[in-house]
Structures are given as C-alpha cells and as structure tokens.
Amino acid sequence: MQPTASACRLAAACSSGRRQRRRVRREATRQGDENSSSWWTPPLDAKAKLRLAAKGSVAALSILLALESGIDHDLLAPVFGPDRVQVASALPASGGAASLMAEEDAVTTIFRENTASVVNITNLQQGRMGGSLDITEVPVGTGTGFVWDDKGHVITNFHVIKGASDVKVTLIDKNSYAATVVGFDEDKDIAILTLQGVNPRDLIPIRVGRSGGLLVGQTVFAIGNPFGLDHTMSSGIVSGLGRVIQSQSGRPIRGAIQTDAAINPGNSGGPLLDRKGQLIGVNTAILDPTGRGANVGVGFAIPVDTVRGIVEQIITYGKIVRPYLGITLAPDQALAQLGRKGVLVLDVPANSPASGRLQPTYRSLTGIVLGDVIVAVDGKPVEGSGDLYGCLDALKVGDTVRLTVERGKGSREEVSITLGGKTTTFES
Q1: Which of 292, 210, 231, 221 is nearest to 259 (CA)?
Q2: Mean pLDDT over all residues of the chain?
Q3: Beta-strand relationship, 166-170 and 118-127
Q4: What is the spatial distance between Cα 216 and Cα 202, in angstroms, rounded to a whole number?
Q5: What is the distance in angstroms between the CA of the first residue and the CA of the last residue of the chain?
Q6: Once rounded to an integer, what is the mean pLDDT over residues 331-356?
Q7: Region annotation Disordered: residue ranges (predicted)?
Q8: Alpha helices in 199-350, H assignment, sequence order
C-alpha cells in the first residue's frame, strides 16, 4: 500500500522535529549547561501509546506523537489543520489531585466563613434535679440556630425552644447570652430570638440566599451541633423539592426541601447552605422509620423564602396574620373510620367567617348528627385536613373561597366564605 500524502508530510515533519531537537541539545552541551535539557519531557512509553491509540483516532495519536517529538505548531498545521492542532496543544495536564484539593478548599471555606454565624441553643425549663426539692432551671434539650442580623436576632426551629422558661445561646467564642423569644410561627416551626447584652460587633449574620431556583441534584451543606458536638458539617444534595411535612401544630409545611445531608438530633434549627455558602433553608426534621432519632439519609429543611417572610413580618410588625375560616375540625381519623374522605366540621363559633354558612356537628336525642364535610376548596379535592390547610396557605385575608360540602344524607352544596384574619401578636 502506498503511503498517503498526509503520512509523508507527517513523517517529514517528525524527522525535522528530531533533527531540531538534536541541534538544540548539542548546542546546550557545548555551552556546558547541565540543566539545559530539563525542559524536555521524556516521551510516552510504548504501553501508554498503545492505550491512547486504542482510545482515540489515528490522527489524534499522530498529533500527540508529533507534539512529543518537538515539532513546531506551524509544521503540524498544514498536515492536520490548525484547529485540531490548537485543541491538542491546549489540552491540560491531568490534575486530579489539584482539582480535588480545590474542591476541598471550597468546602472548608464554606465551613470557615459560616461557623461564626451558627450558634448553639439550650432549652432551659424549671424543674428539680435529683432528689432535691428546690426548683431550678434544667437543660432539657439543645439545638442549633444562626444569626440573622447585627441587631441580635437569631433564627431557630420553634420545637427547639418550645416550653422553655429561659433560652441560652452560645456563640462560637463560647460566650453565652440569655435570649428572649421575639415571636414564632408554630405552624411553620420557626422561632425568632434576640440576644441580651451582646456586642453587635461580635455578631456575624449569615448570608441569606434564595430557595426559589433550587434544582434537584444541587450540592448542599448542613452545619449544626448534632448530639451536643460543637459545629459539625455534613454535605449532600437536594434530593427533592416541594415536599410536605407536618409541623408541631399538626399543620402541614409545604414546599420543604429534601436532602440526604445528615441532619441528626441537635441539627434542628441550623442552616442549610448552597455551594456559595448562602442560606437556602432551615433544617427541621428527618424521616426516621426506626423511631430512634437516627438519620437514614432523608432530611427536610424549611425553604428560606418561607422563612424570610415570617421573620420579616414578626420583626417589623410584632405579629403574624393568617387567613382562616373560623371553624373547628374533627380529627381526620373520625371520617376515616366511616370510610369517607374530606374534613368534618366539628364546631362553628359565633361571629367567625363561617358562622351561619357551615353546619357543625352536634348531639341530638337520637345520637350524633354529623356536620358539613368539606370535600373541595375552589374545585380542588380535599381528602384531609392537610389538603384544607394547604389551600388556605395559598390565600390571603379577604379572599373569598368556594367550598364544596357534603351535607345531611350526602347531598353536595357550594358555600362561599370570605376569609377572616387570625392575628397572633407578640409583646415587644
């Protein structure tokens, strides 16, 4: 088989490159420079060349060998074209270790820059220790929180400070401060504290990001104080979005972030951060099939967009206003035992938005008469109280809702109600 013109040009270029390299080395020897050959990289061994040939094309291998032989870029360009040679020349050397070090450095930077914003919270309640009859403050639990601003506000979960007679907050410098509860939203498991007697210069607020643009698969980091250990970090990814979890009040928290970053007891109330070190959520719960508080890789965080609205409302106005129907609901199990879906109206207080529009459950001489059963809100099916609360969360005070109810012996009716406002006010 006759060699092609390209092969001939390549052979000539390789020969020219070898001659050029020999001339340079002879010149360096004459000048007595012992280190002059240090610029020269030893050629690849035979096995490495065979591996490259098996993985790539013949043309790619030819370019690699030509570059190894010291051929000038201008000699190669006429043979394979300037584009291919440019790409081959620009290929970086393998830097696996360097890349790993850079990634580790980014993670350690996130930890270093945010630990000063993360605090330890101790729930103190009055009780007796041992056999003593004296009443004293006893630590009943610990959790995590983070500095929101330079005015001394700290954010944590409501369940971390629930029932506390006093709350102690410890900063990274090990100094502890008494904290008062500014306000809370039990339905969203968020509480706002303010530190007493702290120097604002000792506070480093966390950088608040956004949760609206999160995607499944993004890297996240959780910082907290699990099992009483001081400032630990775990990493993972966003495993899911839009999850629904149950708050301490029994109402659902919608839009929760699911992550496989380890969230253990003591991490509650701590920050969930993105790769930029910005707050995207507040760690609040784990899925624990064992019932022992063990992490199984399914944790949940309240999205920061939800947290921001609650915190700003409480700090600015000292209260929370939520839309409500003004009814008392029966437990979901009551209807489930009857094989029915929906929400049973147990009571309708006087002067509530639903007064005179919905019928309550009552006892008659012949037994219990069931009240209205709400089966839909604005056309959306309601199978339980979680669905009803979810519909209300998307509305605001003054909105009119159309309820579909089953009344009496199963007849369906449409009832329109204008939502009132339920205000929870906190003392300043």
Answers
A1: 221
A2: 78
A3: antiparallel
A4: 36
A5: 94
A6: 90
A7: 19-40
A8: 304-317, 332-336
How far are the Cα atoms of 131, 224, 282, 295, 296 from residue 291, in angstroms, in the given order? 31, 21, 22, 10, 11
**Would you state the pLDDT for residue 66?**
45
pLDDT band at 62 (very low <50, low <70, confident <90, very high): very low
- The token duo for 405 is 């109810």
**Cα distances (Å, whole numbers) of residue 148 to 120, 132, 304, 395:** 14, 39, 12, 27
Rg of the chain (C-alpha set): 34
More confident call, 282 vs 392:
282
Consecutive H or E run containing 158 = helix 158-161
Q: Are 17 and 69 in contact (CB under 8 A)?
A: yes
Catalytic residues: 159, 189, 268
Spatial contact of 288 and 296, defined as CB atoms under 8 Å apart: yes
Q: Round to whole Å and give the CA distance between 189 and 112.
A: 27
Tokens of 164: 């506390």
φ, ψ for residue 340 (rounded to 5)?
-120, 155
**Residue ranges of domains in the chain, CATH in brackets:** 5-90 (no CATH), 115-202 (2.40.10.10), 219-320 (2.40.10.10), 322-425 (2.30.42.10)
Our measurement of the distance from residue 107's CA atom to the centroid of its chain's CA atoms, rounded to an integer in Å, reads 15
